[in-house]
Automatic annotation (TrEMBL):
The keyword Transmembrane applies. Pfam families: Glycos_transf_2. Its main location: membrane. InterPro entries: Glyco_trans_2-like (IPR001173), Glycosyltr_2/OpgH_subfam (IPR050321), Nucleotide-diphossugar_trans (IPR029044). The lineage of its organism: Bacteria, Pseudomonadati, Pseudomonadota, Alphaproteobacteria, Hyphomicrobiales. This is Glycosyltransferase. It is a multi-pass membrane protein. It is found in: Membrane. Its EC number is 2.4.-.-. Keywords: Glycosyltransferase, Membrane, Transferase, Transmembrane, Transmembrane helix. The keyword Glycosyltransferase applies.
Length: 665
């Protein structure tokens, strides 16, 4: 009993600290973050000292296993370096909304004629009209004096139909003779034909909210600010949410960065431009010679180049735009492989973190692409270590006993997971987050290695989005890797359970068995992401507004550009399937009544049906469609998941895993 308490004591102390301290503190207070992150760092350092002095140095040079022990330890050291940078970063937090309010009162107190001019750049290559129209219409609807605002659609696809659309809406359609330097070259061409004091950039699939300029422009009262970046929010379900069946209970995959990490980076003055949903000072862009073309991630390099010239990037953590997340796994990996390769490219450039002039040592360290370089190698190693032991008896460390191992490693894991749950309470669950990272490893690790060897070997590739990108698919490549690891791990367990075939002995076998079982669970969840679901081209927003359908009162509960769902009392009767829908601000819309449904929550215990839902389909054209775009996409609605429903996540994953297993069998 006493021995057990001694083994568990460090972990119990960690849990007690979080229960008595951080979980009762505001996670946005810098002192609370600093104290908590420092404690986690000390616990991790305690583990590393134990690993080096007790489990690495004592290991004799007895052949291949000696080098395996050192390899695993080096990977752990890399992981610790990434965690250390993360802890330093997250020990601060800044919310600039109050500052935006204060600066805005002064900035917009001037006469409209004295306001600066703004050019909106919408770089595009192959996006279809159903993607582009939202961005163009939304940009033209920005709340800013029209004589001070110009919208430039920078078309590297040189499409006549897009020119016609722009001319009909009042946007400038700009082309060039070639596509040199991809997006960066396209925007530099835009600089040559425009003259605004500030440049707002929105990718072809992002729609600015009407108040975007009113919230961001005031920060430029400080002449040292070169860029203001805002978060990227999405009006569709990303493939991870969709394929795991968690679209209503799990936030999109990028929320952790934009909601939590980016504000912390800003607290250290190492925020960076993420391309879309940003606005830059033209004077600062001119100072660096235009948008950098040396890297396929021109946004990150723009920040680094501006830092070299003394300009800073600010981050305003407010939802001021909405866009399309990658709609399927193909787009998901095209996007992330581009980010990864671009981040690694900066290591080789004259204006990157290693060689860029004017950067402080802290800035150089914080702009190293450590996450790309380390995380996938670590995740791959976590999968391989128990397999190497179960199949070949290769110990990853000089093992003392289970108690010693648990008293040093478990406190580290507990401290890190509790820290993440405190810092990001609505964005993180250990098991699901680990599974998502593991899923990405099999494609991203080769990208990391190839980018290190040939950083400029792959050209810029546009993320496919919009119509023509709807087909569901199956990621056979990743699934094969995952299935292979599951089979090899499970067979390794079975071989060593049966006494006649077992070839591992000693107390590490218990650790290896638990480790292997956890890996299998993580891999099973990761495998679910490989099965793509079909998607809707035009996403619907949930809302609750009063409407009329053929004069009958109802509640509008869902609306998209081509469909509305209206809840009406069960006694409502319609004379035809062709009805009139009356929405506030619109002329009566002619719609087809195609479906009537019932929801379980609208049937009482006695069986009485209180209301049903009519599904109305319509086809808006011209400026009526533009009005609907402005209504839906410029700030009134969102599809955010405000919090993680932990029970719902667990149930959904179990059902998905069980259902997929039944299909496979």
């Amino acid at each position: 009993m006493v021995q057990s308490l001694l083994v568990l004591a460090p972990t119990l102390l960690v849990i007690a600290f979080f229960l008595l301290g951080p979980f009762n503190w505001s996670r946005h207070r810098t002192w609370a973050r600093a104290v908590t992150c420092a404690l986690v760092a000390l616990i991790a350092l305690r583990y590393l000292v134990w690993r080096f002095t007790e489990t690495v140095l004592p290991y004799p040079n007895d052949g291949p296993n000696f080098y395996w022990v050192w390899l695993v330890f080096i990977v752990e050291m890399l992981a610790f370096s990434e965690v250390a940078l993360f802890l330093i970063l997250m020990s601060r937090y800044v919310d600039r909304s109050v500052e935006a309010n204060r600066l805005g009162q002064v900035f917009f107190a001037r006469k409209p004629g004295d306001l600066p001019t703004v050019d909106v750049f919408i770089p595009t290559y192959n996006e279809p009209l159903d993607v582009l129209e939202r961005t163009i219409v939304g940009a033209l609807a920005l709340d800013y004096p029209k004589d001070k605002l110009k919208v430039y659609v920078l078309d590297d696809g040189r499409r006549d139909w897009l020119r016609t659309f722009c001319e009909g809406r009042g946007a400038f359609h700009v082309t060039r003779s070639d596509n040199a330097h991809a997006k960066a070259g396209n925007m530099n061409n835009g600089l040559a034909v425009s003259s605004g004091d500030f440049i707002a950039v929105f990718d072809a699939d992002f729609v600015p909210y009407r108040n975007f300029l009113r919230r961001t422009l005031p920060f430029f009262s400080d002449e040292t600010i070169g860029i203001v970046q805002t978060p990227q929010h999405f009006f569709n379900i990303d493939p991870v949410q969709s394929n795991l069946g968690l679209e209503n209970v799990w936030p999109d995959e990028q929320r952790l960065f934009f909601d939590e990490i980016a504000p912390s980076r800003d607290g250290w003055d190492v925020s960076f431009c993420c391309g879309s949903c940003s606005i830059a000072r033209r004077k600062a862009i001119d100072a660096i010679g235009g948008f950098p073309t040396e890297s396929i991630t021109e946004d990150l390099l723009t920040t680094l180049s501006m830092l070299n010239k003394g300009y800073k990037t600010r981050y305003l953590n407010e939802r001021l735009s909405m866009g399309l997340a990658a709609e399927n796994l193909t787009g998901y990996f095209v996007q992330r492989e581009r980010w990864c390769q671009g981040g690694i490219q900066t290591l080789y450039l004259h204006n990157g973190p290693l060689r860029g002039p004017g950067l402080s040592l802290f800035q150089r360290i914080m702009f190293l692409p450590m996450s790309w370089l380390v995380q996938y190698l670590v995740r791959f190693t976590v999968l391989v270590v128990p397999i190497a032991y179960l199949w070949f008896g290769a110990l990853p460390l000089h093992f003392t006993d289970v108690g010693d191992y648990l008293s040093h490693q478990v406190p580290v894991l507990a401290a890190y997971f509790l820290l993440m749950l405190w810092l990001t309470p609505t964005r993180y669950l250990p098991l699901v987050s680990t599974a998502v990272g593991t899923f990405s490893t099999f494609r991203m690790l080769p990208t990391v290695l190839s980018s290190l060897v040939r950083p400029f070997g792959k050209p810029f590739k546009v993320t496919p989005k919009g119509s023509g990108n709807e087909a569901s698919a199956f990621d056979a490549y990743t699934f094969t890797w995952i299935a292979g690891f599951i089979v090899v791990t499970a067979l390794g367990l079975l071989i060593n359970i049966v006494p006649e075939t077992a070839h591992t002995r000693g107390s590490f076998s218990t650790i290896a068995a638990f480790w292997s079982g956890l890996n299998i669970v993580v891999l099973v969840i990761a495998s679910l992401i490989c099965f793509e679901k079909p998607r809707r081209l035009l996403q619907a927003f949930k809302l609750d507004e009063a409407v009329e359908v053929d004069g009958a009162a109802g509640r509008l509960v869902s609306l998209s550009l081509d469909k509305a769902v209206v809840a009406v009392p069960t006694e409502t009767r319609f004379r035809s399937t062709r009805v009139l829908l009356n929405l506030e601000g619109f002329a009566p819309l002619e719609a087809d009544l195609k479906q009537v449904t019932q929801r379980r929550g609208d049937i009482t215990r006695s069986g009485d049906k209180r209301r049903y839902y009519v599904h109305l389909h319509f086809d808006l054209r011209g400026f009526e469609r533009d009005k609907m775009i402005i209504k839906l996409y410029t700030g009134r609605y969102s599809r955010e998941v405000p919090d993680i429903d932990k029970i719902a996540v667990s149930v959904s994953l179990l059902l998905r895993a069980f259902g997929r297993t039944r299909v496979a069998s």
